Structure to design on (604 residues):
């Protein structure tokens, strides 16, 4: 039994796809043309012949954008940010969730609320005092300062707590009969059991870390710590007052900044959707 | 679950048992039949997360509340306690009120458009068979693009010299001047924000639709001949919990996650450009050096967000009841 599919359905979907994808394609294509061509002809839908040149310059040319830093360096920093954040989040939240679900101990409820209150307030509303705390601790312009404060939100803990609660009780009973202690049970049973969940969370958190903008903007004044997102801000600042801005380089930077997260989503689509819809952010 | 307690005594009982749980060892609803009974081990697992939460969440949050009651000397020589003055100043300023009005408008329109378009695309993608995976992959991929990147690409489309949307508007006789004209900028920021958010809503609506059992779909096909009626009477009620959840998420998105889009489009120059409340907190604090005023605005926002999140949890709970 099937519904009748009208051509209109496909038409709507195609319009939606065009609306979402066309800007991305045009950014990609325009990055392979010269700024003067873009300036006089507008954005392109076909590839040009200056792609190699532009990307080589963006990736390796020192001072391409800011005077001190190459695109490759920013790419590396974004990678550190994405992977560091995802790994940190998984390790911290699995441990915390384990303690909250599998142990009977004093103050458990208070600690539970202390951790989950962090879900109430995003970083943006306490951005000024957070900056002051970081500068007091001397963590400006460090990778620690870029990554660790973002780990304060309990999204991951919430997710792993839900997951651990769904693990059958019999596992722990059996493990205890076999004489396994809390560390052994965690490492030998719970961690291997969570492998798919960890992968799904990793994808979501990698994208989240990679795409951070406001925090790196405040934390880094030293250009060697710039991420690609921070680079976008700089290239726009350079534009002010220039005759013909380097449109092609800006597009190239945008393309570099979106390839890794988009690739992750497309390649690991199933796992990504699972992580997103089951974690409820 | 708490709503089931109607009588006073039952409620008192619930509060008492909660209180007991606060100081006793047990959690109110034991999650596991068996638990480890060691007083110190759990702390080892909790300490890293607790340390980060205390240093990077509670410390700055408390500081935001404290400094909202002070006016800081611009040269860094101490601060004067002024009570609620920062709050009064913020709430009474016409600039704050116009920013708040714009923020409300912005949230409403971004939420409505991205929810509506996301739902439409999800319903259609759920229906078609040929090409469905391709549509799905293409529609989802934009999710991964960061808001500042979306802002940058959007800026190019609205560019005064070579932006295609500028040309398109010219066809209709409108001179689109993003960054200069208030409503033109608003239009650009709304478009970019909606563009970025559609995939998120699409993913949730589609997975909501696909979890509807085949038997329900078939029954609906027999009962309701017209597609619109089937959508209104069967699909929409089944999607209601997802929609409520997304509503809160989308409001939070419009409030906070659009910050980079504003930063890229408005570029620190709010002169005659629309901005949101979050952007104003940032401008007043970092560009204007008005730490007290910025903190007071932060606290007001905190209250708004906390209310939103509580709402979100209530809907989440209800979602479980729907099944």
């Amino acid at each position: 039994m099937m519904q009748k599919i009208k051509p209109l359905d496909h038409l709507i979907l195609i319009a939606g796809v065009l609306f979402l994808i066309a800007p991305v394609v045009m950014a990609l294509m325009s990055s392979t043309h010269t700024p003067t061509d873009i300036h006089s002809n507008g954005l392109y839908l076909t590839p040009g012949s200056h792609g190699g040149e532009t990307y080589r310059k963006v990736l390796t040319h020192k001072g391409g954008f800011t005077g001190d830093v190459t695109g490759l360096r920013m790419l590396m920093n974004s990678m550190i940010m994405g992977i560091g954040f995802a790994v940190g989040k998984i390790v911290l939240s699995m441990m915390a969730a384990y303690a909250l679900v599998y142990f009977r101990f004093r103050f458990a409820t208070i600690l539970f609320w202390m951790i989950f209150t962090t879900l109430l307030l995003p970083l943006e509303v306490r951005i000024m005092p957070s900056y002051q705390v970081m500068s007091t601790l001397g963590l400006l312009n460090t990778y620690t300062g870029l990554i660790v404060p973002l780990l304060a939100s309990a999204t991951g803990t919430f997710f792993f707590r839900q997951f651990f609660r769904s693990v059958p009780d019999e596992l722990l009973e059996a493990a205890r009969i076999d004489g396994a202690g809390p560390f052994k049970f965690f490492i030998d049973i719970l961690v291997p059991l969570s492998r798919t969940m960890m992968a799904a969370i990793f994808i979501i958190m990698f994208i989240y870390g990679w795409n951070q903008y406001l925090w790196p903007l405040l934390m880094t004044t030293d250009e060697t710590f710039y991420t690609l997102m921070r680079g976008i801000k700089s290239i726009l600042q350079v534009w002010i007052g220039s005759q013909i801005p380097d449109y092609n380089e800006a597009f190239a930077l945008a393309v570099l900044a979106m390839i890794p997260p988009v690739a992750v989503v497309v390649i690991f689509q199933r796992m990504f959707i699972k992580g997103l819809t089951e974690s409820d952010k | 679950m708490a709503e089931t307690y109607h009588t006073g005594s039952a409620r008192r009982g619930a509060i008492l048992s909660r209180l007991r749980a606060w100081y006793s060892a047990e959690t109110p609803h034991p999650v596991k039949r068996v638990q480890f009974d060691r007083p110190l081990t759990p702390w080892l697992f909790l300490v890293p997360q607790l340390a980060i939460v205390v240093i990077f969440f509670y410390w700055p949050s408390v500081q935001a509340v404290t400094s909202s009651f002070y006016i800081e000397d611009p040269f860094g020589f101490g601060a004067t306690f002024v009570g609620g003055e920062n709050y009064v100043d913020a709430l009474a300023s016409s600039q704050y009120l116009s920013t708040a009005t714009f923020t409300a408008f912005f949230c409403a329109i971004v939420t409505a458009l991205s929810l509506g378009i996301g739902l439409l695309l999800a319903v259609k993608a759920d229906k078609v068979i040929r090409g469905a995976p391709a549509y799905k992959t293409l529609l989802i991929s934009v999710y991964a693009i960061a808001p500042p990147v979306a802002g940058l690409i959007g800026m190019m489309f609205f560019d005064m010299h070579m932006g295609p949307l500028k040309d398109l508007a010219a066809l209709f006789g409108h001179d689109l001047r993003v960054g200069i004209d208030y409503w033109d900028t608003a239009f650009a920021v709304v478009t970019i924000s909606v563009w970025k958010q559609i995939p998120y809503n699409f993913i949730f609506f589609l997975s909501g639709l696909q979890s509807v059992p085949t038997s329900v779909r078939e029954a609906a096909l027999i009962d309701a001949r017209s597609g619109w009626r089937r959508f209104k009477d069967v699909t929409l009620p089944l999607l209601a919990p997802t929609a409520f959840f997304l509503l809160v998420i989308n409001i939070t998105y419009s409030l906070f996650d659009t910050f980079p889009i504003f930063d890229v489009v408005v570029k620190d120059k709010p002169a005659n450009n629309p901005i949101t409340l979050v952007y104003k907190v940032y401008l007043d604090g970092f560009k204007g050096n008005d730490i007290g005023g910025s903190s007071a605005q932060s606290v007001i926002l905190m209250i708004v967000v906390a209310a939103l999140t509580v709402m979100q949890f209530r809907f989440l709970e209800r979602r479980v009841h729907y099944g």
